[in-house]
Amino acid sequence: MNPHLTSQLTRIRNQKNSPIESQKKIAILLCAIDESIPEQNVLAYFGATMTFLSTLLQSSPIDTERLAAVTYLLAILLPHVNSQILKLKFEMVSQVISTAVDIPNNDAPLLRSLLECIQPLIIAQDATTLTSNPLAKKLFQTLLFYTIDARPKVRKLSHSIIQRILTSPPPPALYHPLNLATVDFIQAYFKEFVKTQVKTPEQESLIFHMLVFFRTVAPVLTSNGVSEKCKGRIRECTNLLLVVVEKAGKGYIIQNVFTTLGVVISPTFEMDGSVVGGEETTNLDIQYLDYLLNSVSELQPNLNDVVAYETWLNLIAAIFSQLARKLQKVSEFDENYGVFVKYASETFPGLVLSAFQKLFVKVFGNS
Fold it and tell me: Which residues pair with 269 in a beta bridge?
């Protein structure tokens, strides 16, 4: 058995006399499984844990404390189960996990364990299963749903799991087939926020959580290894963000939109508006970056909002930086080579001068 898994299970067994009741229940459960299996290997533990979980879900009422214990163990075991087994047992395992997730009023620890179970199960599947199997779609939609959960630990875990899934496309795919579902989910919330006239505190909270989620997955979704369709949806999301700035009203949302746009444009854009490293380039093309530069320039926040104004300035700097990198990489073999050369020699310097005059003369004066 994997040494890391062995170490984890040993640590759990040693908590049999723990004063913390939840730890004690997990340890007692593991010891019971130890006695029920003929040989201590991953498959034996996996099979026994799944049997125990299925039995629990059929009882009425369901003992949620025992359910939390068994799902905690399952979340530890699943990453060590062979991917071929997870493919073979996908229908059964996903059905059981979906049933557990659907239990009303799940507490945060139980829910976090269930979400952690979804990650290795999804990563093990091929592209066809992920895009056509209803259970696979439901599991991923479950992860997406909890990206805006009111509980911070649940929300953050969902963000991390989805990021890890999207960075692990099924071979031989260059990009993950669930990229598009992720972008569509984000886009739907941006559209809803934009079309609503009066923003409630709940809507403002949701859009804030969605901006954080978009920033988490943006470096994956804006890399060069995504489909043209996904690139198009990213641009639609970016266009919606420009409208969100106009509709938001609240300074903290505006500042977060600028930060999110910065991450879309430059994966190394930080929350404070700074750019770390900066060697990576976005898949947004020169024409669209030019459009963004002109659009963002028109969204100048109030000078008194120091945080939003600083982030806005850094966002404009990031767009200029990405434009310069793109122009440096233009080759004579590019279809629009002549257009880009003219843009680099005439339009781009004019944009820099115009930006300086617009941004800094107002701040420092003409002296």
Answer: 275
pLDDT in tens, 350-363: 666 666 666 666 55
Q: Collapse the DSSP code of 348 into the 3-class scheme (helix H, G, I; strand E, B; otherwise coil) and give the result.
A: helix
In total, the chain counts a number of residues equal to 367
Q: Which pLDDT does position 364 carry in this prediction?
A: 56
Which tens digit of pLDDT belongs to each residue from 313-341? 889 888 888 888 877 776 655 666 656 66
- Cα dist. 47→122, 135, 145, 148, 245 in Å? 19, 20, 29, 33, 51
4: tokens are: 């890391």
pTM of the complete model beyond 0.90: no
Whether 182 shows a pLDDT value over 90: the answer reads yes
Residues 6 or more apart from 136 whose CB is under 8 A from it? 90, 94, 122, 125, 129, 130
Which runs of consecutive H residues, i.e. helices, occur in the chain? 3-13, 21-36, 42-58, 64-77, 83-88, 90-101, 108-123, 127-132, 134-145, 152-166, 179-195, 201-221, 228-248, 251-265, 286-297, 306-328, 337-342, 348-364
Angle at 307 between CA 303 and CA 310, to 5 degrees: 70
Reference 330, options 315, 341, 320; nearest CA is 341
Across-strand partners of 275?
269
**68 pLDDT higher than 90:** yes
Q: What is the mean pLDDT of residues 159-186?
A: 94
